[in-house]
Amino acid sequence: MAFDNLTNRLQDTFRNMTGKGKLSEKNITDALSEIRISLLEADVSLDVINELLEHTRSEALGMKVTRDVEPSQMFVKIVNDKLIEILGEEKSELNFNQKPGILMMVGLQGSGKTTTIAKIANKLNKEGKKVLLVAADLARPAAIEQLKILGTQIGVEVFAQENSTPVEVVKNALAHGKDFDLILIDTAGRLQIDDALMQQLVDIQALTKPDEILLSVDAMSGQDVIHVANGFKEKLNITGLVATKFDGDSRGGSILSVRYMTQVPVKFVGVGEGIEELDEFYPDRTASRILGMGDIVSLVEKAQEKMDIEASERSAERMMKGQFTLDDMLIQLQQVSKMGPLSGLMKMMPGANQLAGQIDDADASSTMKKTEAMILSMTPEERNDPKIIRSTRKRRIAEGSGTSTTDVNRLLSQYEKMQKQMKMLSRFMGK
């Protein structure tokens, strides 16, 4: 995810401050010097860096340290609070004030604009809104076909007309979409900002008077993103940013910069190529993750969204009684795999960011699939009572799952350890 390198550097800096009885001016200066280097490496603009460091120095030198809190923890809080302020204080929602509500998506070519508007349409469609997608990007031949494919995939109608002009397409779409809740317009992009592009967008804005104009920006594009955002903002009433490829760049500081320099809120971040991989942007959670403090709220929300809660609860109830079977182990594995790559989950856990970097998601996924295959190759009787699994049964399970008897032995050993822990926990909970 964006900010990985920054997070690791900041954690090292804060770790060096831990244990200090008080923070001297030298301690603070040394820490701020490290933070400056970390932010520069993360592609954060100098304006943002200076604002953050000057505020942190002023607050740190004047802070009153309470007896129960280490000075280093107070220092982290100062940095955290300022990061939240820079990132936008509170989550910014989509606001639609007319019927149908209208959203324009703008951005340069290659910024993920068309995929992003389909992701937003998918989200709104799942919320029960009747959504119409409008293919007004006539500059890129494949854009209309791409949007049609995505529309079919998510079950949303796409309005498209070839051999026309973008303004005419939008005008006809407005007439067609009178009975829809929301109209989402995909506009043309360019390799760079030019007068013809901007005039086209200005004309569509004048025609539609949209509730939202979202600018798609590439989180991997560095400081250029600030010039792009300002170029669009000069001509259009940009209401929000969508940071695409947020999962792919370990620097990511350009998002801090563009939010601060434009004062336009980040509304969504793209966290993968899948149609579901669009997250709402929470400044406080993002600041927490930058500082390596995890994001437990998002982890819980992801679990609630992806997991079969009833199956998990039934399994948990048996486990609390010390009745942990291989079926329960299978349920837990399947639930975790639904939540995405293991490294991504680790990054949401406080202090686990560096450990997440050591995880090979491909290996972890392969191991989980092998384990699932072995358990599914067992009979219900074997899953319920693994003690009956002797040599002959082990060979059959290995052959049925495409694994080896060594793999089966390793699984059974792992299960026995987990079962002992569950029995100990059930006795403890029962006291």
Automatic annotation (TrEMBL):
<keyword id="KW-0963">Cytoplasm</keyword>
<dbReference type="InterPro" id="IPR027417">
    <property type="entry name" value="P-loop_NTPase"/>
</dbReference>
<dbReference type="InterPro" id="IPR004125">
    <property type="entry name" value="Signal_recog_particle_SRP54_M"/>
</dbReference>
<dbReference type="InterPro" id="IPR003593">
    <property type="entry name" value="AAA+_ATPase"/>
</dbReference>
<keyword id="KW-0694">RNA-binding</keyword>
<feature type="domain" description="SRP54-type proteins GTP-binding">
    <location>
        <begin position="265"/>
        <end position="278"/>
    </location>
</feature>
<comment type="similarity">
    <text>Belongs to the GTP-binding SRP family. SRP54 subfamily.</text>
</comment>
<dbReference type="GO" id="GO:0006614">
    <property type="term" value="P:SRP-dependent cotranslational protein targeting to membrane"/>
</dbReference>
<comment type="function">
    <text>Involved in targeting and insertion of nascent membrane proteins into the cytoplasmic membrane. Binds to the hydrophobic signal sequence of the ribosome-nascent chain (RNC) as it emerges from the ribosomes. The SRP-RNC complex is then targeted to the cytoplasmic membrane where it interacts with the SRP receptor FtsY.</text>
</comment>
<dbReference type="GO" id="GO:0008312">
    <property type="term" value="F:7S RNA binding"/>
</dbReference>
<dbReference type="InterPro" id="IPR004780">
    <property type="entry name" value="SRP"/>
</dbReference>
<keyword id="KW-0342">GTP-binding</keyword>
<protein>
    <recommendedName>
        <fullName>Signal recognition particle protein</fullName>
        <ecNumber>3.6.5.4</ecNumber>
    </recommendedName>
</protein>
<feature type="binding site">
    <location>
        <begin position="244"/>
        <end position="247"/>
    </location>
    <ligand>
        <name>GTP</name>
    </ligand>
</feature>
<keyword id="KW-0733">Signal recognition particle</keyword>
<keyword id="KW-0378">Hydrolase</keyword>
<dbReference type="Pfam" id="PF00448">
    <property type="entry name" value="SRP54"/>
</dbReference>
<keyword id="KW-0687">Ribonucleoprotein</keyword>
<dbReference type="GO" id="GO:0048500">
    <property type="term" value="C:signal recognition particle"/>
</dbReference>
<dbReference type="Pfam" id="PF02881">
    <property type="entry name" value="SRP54_N"/>
</dbReference>
<dbReference type="Pfam" id="PF02978">
    <property type="entry name" value="SRP_SPB"/>
</dbReference>
<feature type="binding site">
    <location>
        <begin position="186"/>
        <end position="190"/>
    </location>
    <ligand>
        <name>GTP</name>
    </ligand>
</feature>
<feature type="binding site">
    <location>
        <begin position="107"/>
        <end position="114"/>
    </location>
    <ligand>
        <name>GTP</name>
    </ligand>
</feature>
<comment type="subunit">
    <text>Part of the signal recognition particle protein translocation system, which is composed of SRP and FtsY.</text>
</comment>
<dbReference type="InterPro" id="IPR036891">
    <property type="entry name" value="Signal_recog_part_SRP54_M_sf"/>
</dbReference>
<dbReference type="GO" id="GO:0003924">
    <property type="term" value="F:GTPase activity"/>
</dbReference>
<dbReference type="InterPro" id="IPR042101">
    <property type="entry name" value="SRP54_N_sf"/>
</dbReference>
<keyword id="KW-0547">Nucleotide-binding</keyword>
<dbReference type="InterPro" id="IPR013822">
    <property type="entry name" value="Signal_recog_particl_SRP54_hlx"/>
</dbReference>
<dbReference type="GO" id="GO:0005525">
    <property type="term" value="F:GTP binding"/>
</dbReference>
<dbReference type="InterPro" id="IPR000897">
    <property type="entry name" value="SRP54_GTPase_dom"/>
</dbReference>
<dbReference type="InterPro" id="IPR022941">
    <property type="entry name" value="SRP54"/>
</dbReference>
